[in-house]
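Researcher: Next entry: G/U mismatch-specific uracil-DNA glycosylase (Mucilaginibacter defluvii).
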Amino acid sequence: MFNIYETPFSNDYEVRKQLLYNNNIALWDVLESCESIGSADDAIKNEKANDFKLFYQKYPAIKKVYFTSKAAEKYYDRYVLKSPDKSYFVLPSPSRANTWKSFEEKLQEWNIIIH
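Model: Predicted structure:
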């Protein structure tokens, strides 16, 4: 996100939150909780989705939703369902496991999709 918004990188949590706030970005996981052995998406079980209905009621200006993986979109589709008043996009996963694309390739795709 720092690269996309041409801002110097920071590890400071407050600076990171401010970057999102300054660019009108809400960040929320699709799943509130789950059980998993390891970090693979297919290891997830007993998942519980966040309450997006309440979230969208509280923040009605949200019109674009971005997923950082196809798995996140899959859980969203399973528990939330897409609304015709929003646009949905799957971004290239930032995960290091997504090794078939370089950081620069992922960054270029993120830039195109987000802007």
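Model: Note for the record: The two ends are 12 Å apart (CA to CA).
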